[in-house]
Design brief:
The protein has 162 residues and is an alpha+beta fold. It is 52% helix and 22% strand. The chain has 2 domains: 53 residues, Thrombin, subunit H, CATH 2.40.10.170; 99 residues, Methane Monooxygenase Hydroxylase, Chain G, domain 1 (Up-down Bundle). Helix 3 runs parallel beside helix 5.
Length: 162
Amino acid sequence: MFDIGDKVVYPMHGAGIIEGIEEREILGEKKNYYVLRFPVGDMKVMIPIANVEQIGIREVIPNEEADKVVAFLNRDKSEMSSNWNKRYRQNMEKIRSGDIYEVAEVVRNLMLRDHEKGLSTAERKMLTNARQILISELVLSKDAEEEEITALIDRIVEEESV
């Protein structure tokens, strides 16, 4: 399905590069794994190849699509529930989806809400996680530096909140 060097997104973790394919024996069962390295956060994980579809692993979006995601961040904040618990669950579903537009929406909405009213500890943690996921995919998609993408997102949302 994927090859060494492919850039992929692991929902809830972010985007990384497949560095290798290894066979490992765990509990007496041999399985093939992708070795995925995340440039943002410099973490490595092993994903069973047989579970890739179930997990929702997908290719990183192309550069042109990344520009659309950046433009999407410029849109107005979308409706969010005033009920903290409901809003948290809805945002978590969006992040779990692995869809970059859903993740971008969570980042934009939570950053704007933070400027307006502040965030709870749990929502602040969610924002940090969603930002990391979004930044990691944009870094690989645009072949850019993490600091450059972080500054871009901050600048866009800052302009929105003014």
